[in-house]
Structure formats: C-alpha cells, structure tokens
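Lab meeting notes turned into a lecture example. A postdoc, R.K., suggested we walk through two folding results consecutively so the class can see how the record format repeats. The first protein's sequence and structure tokens come next.
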Amino acid sequence: MNPQPDTLAQLTEAGVAVWLDDISRERLVTGNLEMLKRDMHVRGVTSNPTIFAHALAQGSAYDEQVADLGLRGVSVEEASRVITTYDIRWACDVLRPVYDATDGVDGRVSLEVDPRIANDTTGKTFAEAKALWWMVDRPNLFIKIPATEAGLPAITQSLAAGISVNVTLIFSLQRYGQVIDAFLAGLEGAAAAGRDLSRIASVASFFVSRMDTEVDRRLDKLGTPEAAALRGKTAIANARLAYELFEQRFDSGSARWQALRAAGARLQRPLWASTSTKDPAFPDTMYVVELVAPHTVNTMPEATLRATADHGELRGDTIRGTYEESRRVLDRMESLGIAYDDVVQVLETEGVEKFEASWNELLETIRTQMDAAAKSR
C-alpha cells in the first residue's frame, strides 16, 4: 500500500504557508499549538476578536488572570489588552523557531487592533498599533489592521514605523490595490527613516468564504438554473484575481517595487482567510485546494486543517492560468444583476460590525468574570 500523502507538507512545498486561525490559553497551556507546529506544519497563527471572545467564554484557563486583574482594579478595557497580549506573546515564543528558521518569513502571530476604531480618521488606529506592538514586544508579531478606507493611512504609518502588519478584512480587488499602495508607501517611509526593510513584514488577508455566503444567498433568491450553476464559484474566482493583481504589482517590471526589493524589502504575501466552508454542499477543503500558488498563506481553523490533512487532494498550482475563467465567473454574476461593488461593500461593513460585536462580547465576558471574582473574595 502507498503511504497516505502528507498533504500539509505538500502545501508547504508548493509555497503555501499553513497557519492556524485560532488561539486560546488552553491551546498554549496544553501544548496543542506546539503539537500543531511539530506534527501538522503550522507556521503561523491568526487571531481576531471573535476567536478571543470564544476563548474567554470557554473553560477556566483565564480565571486566575482575570481574578488578579480584578483585584488590582484594572479597567475592563485594559484587562482585555493584558489578556490578549499575554496569549499572543506566548504564541510568538512557541513559533519563534519557525520565525528564525525561515528568516522571518513565517512564525508570525497576528493580533488585531480594536475593531471599534476601524473607521476612525483621527489617528487612533496607528496609536493602538504602536501600543500593542510595544506590549507584545516580539519581532514575529503582526498587528492586524482592517482594510477600511480609514485604515489605509494607519497601515502606511505602522509599516513606516517598523511595525509588521497583517492587513485584514479585504474583499474587493480595488481595495486590494489600495492596500498594496499603502504597503509600498509604508516601506518607502521606513526606508527614508533608515529602517531595515528586511525586518518589516506584511500579509494581505483576503476573506474568501464570506463572499460565497453573500453571493449564494442572492443567487438562491433568483432561483434560476443560471444562478444555481454559479453557487460556490465567485469567492475562489475573486481570490484568484487578487493573486493576479499580486503578480502584476510585484512583477520584476515594477520599478517602484524593485527599488524597495533592492533595499531589502520582502513581498507582501496574499493570505487566504475565512477558509472553512459554510455550506455543507461544498467540499470542506475547497478553499484550500483551489487556492494553491507560491508566496501565499492559508490560515485555517483546526477542523479545516485536519480535514486537509485527512482527505485534501492537491492538484498543483490551482491559481495561475485561471484568470480568464475567473473573470468570466464574476461577469456572469454581474449579468444576473448581482453587483460586485455592492457585494464587497456589504461584506466589509458586516465584517467590521461582526468584529465590533465580538469585541463587545469579549469585554462583557471579562467584566462578568471580574465581578464574579470580586464577589467570591
């Protein structure tokens, strides 16, 4: 019998960095993250407000720290920073060997700024990014900044200050182009300040499955055979066209990029986020095996990670060579009366709102636990 192929190793060899889209104190205490790094090729971690809200609401791993923070009279807002940065710092230390072995390409752990300031234009996002960068104090940290229009200047400012950035909540190709511009401007600012560009990293996180969820909902309302034939196709097409833009903007013919590269700059890799399938009619590894190309990251919940390891079937590079067909998919969507610009704006707005709700849930959980600890003393 032929041995079971190591699909996650094959992904890594194909240039797709396998990251875990989850973190919790329990994962750290039990050594689960260390095990996933060792046995399942996990080379990075992403977190978000929803992940932390879920982690705080489960089990007792945070009880002692929450009680101590309450005893010290720390505010709920500050407690949230202390708790989340503690986990992120620990995860950075777990993945530091990966960071060192890859010369800083992987081994990265992402922590998001307060999503309630995603549309702030007064400089709060940059201030928050600096505060989190100082608090975690690890070179393999990524600060996650939403790719809202208001967030673009903060991305540039953070990179110029030497802060590595995970640009999150990207849905549209137009916005992705603006993210690349913000990245290049940030590196130019860092170079002008005399910073070592080789130590500054960034990824651009394209949210994948949420597009199918929104578009398919609209297709189902149409109820036509043409609409049904398009279900589950637009998200992958959109991501593939994002990769085409990545190739174009970081091409050897781009004088702007080549000047930065000559100064030591690293590529801003596309990262595929939201890669668990939400519709049981679709294969559970669809957003992994259909988005394989060099210089990418795929961050997965553990269930998707294990599904890929168990039965994911790779077919080599599944992005390059698909661009014309991908454009046809989005053209067919438009021809059915579903406007691309409306879809991506709805997704961005909802994405920020969902993370805001999760952040408020996190704060309420901490408040409740601190109050309970105080009453038990």
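The second example is placed directly after the first for contrast:
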Amino acid sequence: MRVSAATVSTFRRVMMITITLCIISPVAAQEKISFSDRVLECTRNILDGTRSFIEETLDGKDSIYVSPNLYNLTIMPQYSYGYDYYRFSSREHNQSIALSPGSSNKIGLYLGWRWIFLGYSFDLSDSDRPQTDLNFSFYTSALGIDLFYRKRSEGYQIRMLKGFYEEGTDGTNRLTTYDHNFDGLTVKQFGTNLYYIFNNKKFSYPAAYSQSTNQRISAGSFILGLSYNEQSFLFDYSKFDAPIREQLSEGLKFKNVEYKDFSINFGYSYNWVFAKDFLANLSLTPAIGYKNTSLRLANSKEFLSSINMDLITRAAIVYNNSRYYAGASLVAHTYSYSKNALSIVNGFGVINVYFGVNFWRRK
C-alpha cells in the first residue's frame, strides 16, 4: 500500500500533538495553569489534530471536479416519508403472508457541522403505534459511515395472502387479500454501513447525501463496503383471525427470529451534473453476507447459518449554490433470510425532501 506525503505529514503532526500532551502537565504546573484550562487546551489540541487528519488524508478533492463547502455549519428542515414491508413464507403448503404498517410522515430539524449531521424529527401520521427511528451519518470524500436503529410494534396490516382459503369452500376460493390490523409483530433492527469511495478525488458522495461539497463535473466511482445488521422478529401468530390461524402451516408458527448478518457490498455510484448547481445521483450496492440465525418455533429452538444476498439503493437530486441548497433523496434497503421451511424478506425505504442554509463561513 502506497502512503502519500500528506498522510505521513499528518501522522507526524498527530505524534507531535501526543508528545505535547505528555509534557503539558509539568509545564502547566510550573506556570500555575488551572486544571480546567489544561483540559480545554488538551481537548483543543486533539480536535485540531483530528480535523487536520480528516481534511488532509480522508477529505482531499480535485477542485476542478469537486469544490469544498465554504461554511462550517448548516441548518436543514426535512420532511420524510417511510414505508416498511415484511413477507413471511413457508414451503409447506406454499404459504405467504405480507405485512406492513401504515406509512410514516415526519418533519425534522437537523444541524450539521462539516461531516456530521444530527437532528430530531416528529411523526405527523395519525397513529399511536410505538415506533423509534435513530440515524447518524458521517461522510468524507473517501469514507462514509451510516448507523441506524429502528423499532416497530403494533399497527401492522395484512397486505397479501397466498395459500389460504375461505372457510367452507373446500379449498376452492382463495383468500388473496385480507386488509385488517395485526398486532402480533414487533421488529427491532440495528445496522451500520462502512464504505470506501475509490474515485474520491473526482467523485463526491457527500455532494449528493450531506450537501457538504459541490460536484462541478459529472463523475462516478466504485464503492466497497462492509455492513453489520442485527434484526429480531417477535411473532405472535395466535393474533391472526381464525380463518388464517387455523390454516397456518407449521413453518409459519414461529415465535422469534433473531439474526446477525456480516456482509460485503460492492457497487457503483454516479453523480450527473445536468445543470449549473444541479446534481442527480444513483447508487446500487449489492451485498453478499453470512447470517447467523436463532429461530424459536412453537415447540423447539434452532440455530442456523446461511449465505444471503441483500441490496442497498440510494438516489438523490440536489440544488446547491454553496449558500443555499434543496433536494430530495431515497434510501432503500432489502434484507432476506431463507432456510429450511421459512423465508423472510424485509424491505424498507425513506424518501427525504429538504432545504437548508449554510452559515459561519470558513476562514
């Protein structure tokens, strides 16, 4: 691996800061500097060294293709529309049940500092179902990190049925739709995605998804990522109405599924600059992963391992003149589990519409 001169320089700078911190205490003692002043100075040195490392090593750019953000802070109101979908299938009797909650509508306010976005959102949906969504993102030119936690319980509806029949029809009339509430499912999910941008000097992922840079000339890049995902399903099949519950195959009579997924994803992302200050992006990153699964059935418990395919899709359209910006983005995840008699497909997506303003111009 070839190490650039900038990386070596930054490493030396960090080492010098570390040495300075090691000797700061005796010097401070001689000059009678207070403990709080020493803590503040130490913190300032660490933050300055970290910022220099990120800017020089992870956030370098070709200024012809990508222009940096000229401001330190941004404030951004955002509207979000979210949708979830779960399909549980059993090979026995070829049965499938699709469940989804009602769509969520949220308004949030976010504050960003250079590479980091934090905020809070309010759910506008006319629903009292318990739900939690937490998201954190960190983007530089070369590296990106996404963290998310999601929890859904109650408020689900049956959207599709396969392999079920109406009562008293001797298996001749199929139940195809059964649009009613089902409160027997609770889903928890935690995940993190870490990815590396190969063409990070000319292609800017943050230009499309955090508005911290401006793409000036169209460019694309391959993306290599690592993902970790934990998901659990608490399933109470006894809450189905009698016509479904009485026909339910043994493969769908599970109580709990928990799986941990380690995956490698490799894909491509492209920024199309179709007009001055306008940008459109599309990213597709298929993933192949190893799943370690705990499956609790009605009368037993199994531990299973499998190799599965997943997909992460992103799309965005952005207007950004450096001072003001507006746009929309889509983030969609598809996760699948399949083993023996049971298979689960979970898809969820979020559409964001936002506008914002940058302030506190960099020196």
